[in-house]
Write a structure and sequence with these properties.
Elements (H helix, E strand, L loop, with lengths): L1 H6 L3 H6 L7 H4 L11 H16 L4 H13 L3 H7 L8 H16 L5 H10 L3 H68 L1
Helix pairs in contact: 4-5, 4-6, 4-9, 5-6, 7-8, 7-9
């Protein structure tokens, strides 16, 4: 949690963004910044969905901030989850998306072509030509499926982790209360 708080944009940084400024009065609501049982899993799912589907750094965090409004999701968690798609993971996400989209819809998108283009440092024109082939529908469909499944798994995991964390906190509090009662009863017995 401390890493997320350190590396996520603060409320003030996000509100200062020129893209968020028109919505600043809504994004500033405190329920979007609190860590609660419902907002954390929603923020996790939203961050994973937007982070994987968009794959455009900077736009991901703004997208999470704006989509957090209707979903009442935690913005810092959502912003942190977008970092799972980064320059290291993006080629793998794109290759898996093209492969999955090709398998789902029977398109003739070729993952090998993508790998060769990455290795050879393809030009923008070559990338556009590749996207205008069957690769674009395969890529979009694959990205959608991978981001939706990731969001669902993230939501379930965040809910389970949150519930276990709360259960552990309550156990600690109850144990501390029992220890204090036991200590008080033993000190009363010793004094009497």
């Amino acid at each position: 949690m401390n890493w997320i708080r350190r590396n996520s944009p603060t409320r003030e940084e996000l509100l200062a963004s020129r893209f968020v400024r028109p919505f600043a009065h809504r994004v500033a609501h405190s329920h979007l910044w609190r860590f609660t049982r419902t907002s954390v899993p929603r923020g996790t799912a939203l961050g994973l969905f937007v982070g994987i589907f968009l794959l455009i750094p900077g736009v991901q965090i703004l997208g999470v901030a704006l989509l957090a409004l209707p979903f009442r999701a935690n913005i810092p968690i959502g912003a942190a989850m977008t970092f799972l798609s980064n320059p290291v993971t993006t080629p793998f996400i794109i290759a898996a998306s093209v492969w999955l989209g090709d398998r789902m819809f029977g398109l003739h998108a070729n993952v090998a072509t993508f790998s060769v283009m990455v290795e050879q440092g393809a030009t923008v024109a070559q990338w556009l030509r590749w996207l205008l082939s069957d690769a674009a529908p395969a890529l979009i469909a694959g990205l959608f499926v991978i981001s939706a499944v990731s969001a669902l798994v993230g939501y379930v995991l965040a809910t389970l982790i949150w519930d276990n964390w709360i259960r552990l906190r309550w156990r600690r509090k109850l144990q501390l209360a029992r220890d204090k009662r036991l200590e008080a009863s033993t000190s009363d017995a010793a004094a009497g």
